[in-house]
Amino acid sequence: MLFDIDLNRNRIFGNVEGLDTLLLKAIFQSVQDELDSERIKNINLRLKQEYGVTFQEVFNKFDKMQGVLRKFDDELKNIEDKILRNFLTVERSTGTETWITIRDKHLAEMILKTYADADKKLILDLIRENAETIPKILGLCNLPNTSGYRKMNQLIEEGFVVPTGLAESFEGKRAILYKSLIQKIQISINKDRVITSISVPKESLRSSQVINMALLINQNSMKNLTN
Fold this sequence. Notes:
This protein has 227 residues and is an alpha+beta fold. The chain contains ten helices and seven strands. It has helices at residues 16-33, 37-51, 62-72, 74-85, 105-116, 118-126, 134-140, 145-158, 202-207, 209-226, and strands at residues 88-94, 97-102, 132-133, 161-168, 174-180, 184-190, 193-201. The strands form two sheets. A four-stranded antiparallel sheet has the order 1-2-7-6. The protein has a three-stranded antiparallel sheet with strand order 3-5-4. The longest helix is centred in the first third of the chain and has 18 residues, at 16-33. The protein is globular. The two termini are 19 Å apart.
């Protein structure tokens, strides 16, 4: 069954943007794999002329990507559908968590590379259960401000860390609380294949437009096979 997409939900704080941000970055890399450099150059030129955006900027938001690809190029839309069809598998649910098996190589590489960074793993482990402000995160992880803020910003931009609310600072100012999107990660080896699975909050999954579209495409594929 498809999850309901909550398009009217306030997404300033929550896991929606984080999950789709992470997934869209991997989709963009996978789409690039399907195209040669000359094709990408021509697409960039046309997008700039017709929409005022670059090819990469189209993948910043799911609704933007869907709208532009539908109008812009049937081949691109077909490529996107093929990628989503083989992108991930929503597996089992336990309590408030849902496990996802990653099938896209770029998404798996992004996750493994991030957790291989000792400082980033330290941050993500610290805020897996409880959200904290950036200064407190860096202090508890004993990270220097310069490199710590850089790595925090990378985690936020890539969607691994999401804002969840506000906290009062000691000066009476309000500071943003951040939490890790991925709750747990499992890595297994099947013959020569590394399988990466992650668990994310159910609310993140229900509200993810990318997840819903992937499920819809796979559902339609199964219907076509049985017709």
